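To the structural biology subgroup,

Please find below the input and predicted structure for Pyridoxal phosphate phosphatase, which we are adding to the shared reference set this quarter. The sequence is reproduced verbatim from the submission form. If anyone notices a discrepancy with their own records, reply to this email rather than editing the shared folder directly, so we keep one authoritative version.
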Amino acid sequence: MAGAFKGCQKIRGPQLKNLLEAKDFILLDCDGVLWHGEKAVTGAATVVNSLIRNGKNVVFVTNNCTRPREKYVHKFSRLGFTDVMLEQIFSSSYCSALYLRDVVKITGQVFVMGCEALRSELQEAGVPCVEDAEDPDATIYNCPLAPDVKAVLVGHDDKMTFLKLAKASCYLKDPDCLFLATDIDPWHPLSGGRILPGSGSLTAALEVSSGRKATVIGKPSRFMFECISSQFEGVDPAKCLMIGDRLETDMLFGANCRLDTMLTLTGVSQTKDAEEYRDSELTTNHSFVPDYIVDSIADFLPAFEEQDEQSN
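Predicted structure (tokenized):
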């Protein structure tokens, strides 16, 4: 449980039903928990729709900044999650926009080392971004640098160039220029055993070249939970359950926010990984350990089937 180290309890049936009844807010990661690419995890849509219809506050917390929230709504609907609303989605790109607009109240421009969806989310929030169409012949020796850059924001960028990295490094020479990262996920799994470098790999490169450390907005930082608390009433950490597939991101996020945590085995981390952290002599590793483990989000289904039988 959050606040009392136990960890790795495999939970099913009545225990799972009792846990759900004790929680008001269910925080769900998306990739690896609800879907893989364009294929929903079996039973996930039924579980999410049932949670919402049974009065639970369901919130989606994702470090994936490659699509704005509107497109997430379309994806949820496309994959059968019919009851999901825009207000339930908290992505690292959306929370980055809130941080820049509402917390630091940025007055200058933001240099975005990230994808178009990240820029779109900032612009939707009214945060000015550097318009940076690269000349293919430009180098850091002769390219113009934008004036009044007050923040550099790093996210997923599949069009990353050396020139972008060099420009970002130059902007960060100014100690008053903020250095932010949507998240620090190192990589993401692809089919066939391949991996996709994550925002964390790009952030690490810029940290080395600039000699500075980034402020992380998404999981495992607490700021995403603060965004949720500011937009929903009555968010009590003791009444929240964080469900994810990655120990170093989702479980640590839960630990940082003092939430009970649950690992699903349909994504990156597996039971043996969690047990290694649990049995580690380093107490800091215990923050990566889930309170509960389920094979899949579909393990929730019997709880709702029993409720449906009782209501008939």
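Summary notes: The chain is about 35% helix and 20% strand. The first strand starts at residue 9 and ends at 10.

Regards,
Lab coordination
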